[in-house]
Structure formats: structure tokens, C-alpha cells
Amino acid sequence: MGLDFTKANSLLSKPGLLIIGAGGKEPSANALEAYAKNGGRVLLLGAVANTAGFTLAPKKLGGASASPPWPEAVGLSPSDLRLRSEIEIPLLAPEPNNVAANGLLGRKPVGRGVILAFPLTPDLLPANELGDDPARYYRW
Questions:
Q1: What is d(CA 106, CA 117) in angstroms, rounded to the nearest whole number?
Q2: How open is the CA angle 77-59-82, to the nearest 5 degrees?
Q3: Staple partner for 108: which of 88, 100, 115, 124, CB 3.0–4.6 Å?
Q4: 56-105: pLDDT as tens digits
């Protein structure tokens, strides 16, 4: 299983899937919304979620008990959203957007598309400080 991708320096002209993480050029909120409005799907990873108006706030998290009933979350199970360790990390605050899974997932429908946010990135896991905790095995 793999993923064909192209690294881009600007938004795609045709609607498709756009994944933006740290280290990339962050488009403006208006540009992201225009892209989604025309049918584009955007996934924002880590603190880049702030770009689309999601708010991050520190919160203790061990995981989520259920995946949201969103079309984009079909196939996610509680085990996909569980950390097996309680840590404090920046998660999505409930307002102003639709947030689920205890702040792990955010959704902002725009026109024919959607902007999704996932604030957890491997560098936020304190893997070296957890001793024998299973979360230390989850880094990439």
C-alpha cells in the first residue's frame, strides 16, 4: 500500500486532496477555504490547523472512545484514536469548528469540500520520557 504524491509550493488548480504539515508553505485561510469551496479536501497536520481557524489548547489525552460520524472518518475505530498513555498535548478546542474524538479531529465543511485537522504529530509524543510505556513505540 502506498501513496502517490507531489510536493507543491502552491495550491492545486483542480480540487483534490491537499495535505499540509509543518515545514511547508502555509496558505492563507482564505486560500484554503476557496480551495475547499470548489470541492477540494484539505488535511491540516499539527499546529498548521491554526491556519484554517482551528484553535489549539493544551489538554490531557489518553485517546478517544469513538470516531465521529463524519463521511471522512468512515473506517476509523477507537483503537485508531487511542494513545494507551495519558499525556498533555495541544489539541483542538471545541469552538468555533466541529471537533470530535476529544480534540484529535476537527472538521470544517466549506462549499463542496472540507477542511480537516489532526493536531497530533509524532514529534509531540514524549517517547523518550515514557520508559516502558507503549507510546514510546509509536514514533515514525
A1: 5
A2: 20
A3: 115
A4: 988 887 766 788 999 999 998 888 887 767 778 888 988 777 898 888 89
Class of residue 10 by CB neighbours under 10 A (exposed 0-12, middle 13-18, buried 19+): exposed
| Whole-angstrom distance, CA of residue 53 vs CA of residue 36 | 14
d(CA 130, CA 82): 16
State how far the Cα of 68 lies from the Cα of 126, in Å rounded to an integer. 26
Sign of CA dihedral 41, 96, 59, 26: positive
- Nine cell digits for residue 138: 509509536
What is the rounded CA–CA span in Å between residue 93 and residue 54?
7
Q: Cell numbers 507503549 label which residue? A: 134
Q: Are 12 and 37 in contact (CB under 8 A)?
A: no
